[in-house]
Specification:
It comes from Actinophytocola oryzae. A hairpin with a 2-residue loop joins strand 4 and strand 5. The N terminus is likely disordered. Strands 1-4-5-8-9-12 form a six-stranded antiparallel beta barrel. It has a two-stranded antiparallel ribbon with strand order 2-3. The chain is built from one helix and twelve strands.
Length: 175
């Protein structure tokens, strides 16, 4: 009789512990979104833009005179947090497509383009404070920074380059 009582008591404790340790289902989360912003290069003072206002996959990302048009407006959509680091898709307002590293290249000097967003690591970017309202923007896959080719002159391609934390890689975001 005593053994049966102990076994019943033990079984009750185990069941209670099992149900108490079961996590509750969280409500689905909505991705944090910021912007739209104009991303103005701190060296050239030109804006990140999609060439000719294209809405096609593969359209070249470039610098251009800032004029307030939707091809140079960007929204940041949080995709993940890994070890406390927040990653974002940088989405062009005009096309709804993401700033992308072609074929996931890890090479310096690769020209960036836009592509349909799918949250691949070549479309995820981390932001580092560059002082004031500016960021250095680093790609998750390549570990290289968003950089303006040819000193950021109008029509110069956006590229990825080794992070040097200079003004050519700093981007001021303004609403």
């Amino acid at each position: 009789m005593r053994v049966r009582t102990v076994v019943s008591l033990l079984a009750g404790v185990l069941l209670a512990t099992a149900f108490a340790a079961t996590p509750a289902q969280a409500a689905p989360s909505v991705a944090a979104s910021f912007g739209p912003y104009e991303l103005r290069n701190n060296s050239s003072h030109h804006c990140a833009d999609i060439a000719n206002g294209s809405i096609q996959d593969g359209a070249r990302a470039q610098t251009w005179d800032c004029y307030g048009g939707t091809p140079e407006r960007w929204t940041l959509v949080e995709t993940s947090v890994i070890n406390g680091v927040h990653y974002y898709e940088i989405v062009n307002v005009n096309s709804g497509k993401c700033l992308d590293v072609p074929n996931g290249s890890k090479d310096w000097g690769v020209e960036l383009h836009q592509w349909t967003c799918w949250s691949g690591d070549m479309q995820q970017w981390m932001l580092y404070n560059a002082g004031g309202n500016a960021w250095f923007i680093k790609n998750m896959r390549s570990g290289l920074c968003l950089d303006a080719r040819d000193f950021g002159l109008p029509g110069a391609s956006l590229q990825q380059w080794d992070c040097n934390w200079g003004a050519i890689q700093a981007w001021t975001h303004t609403p």
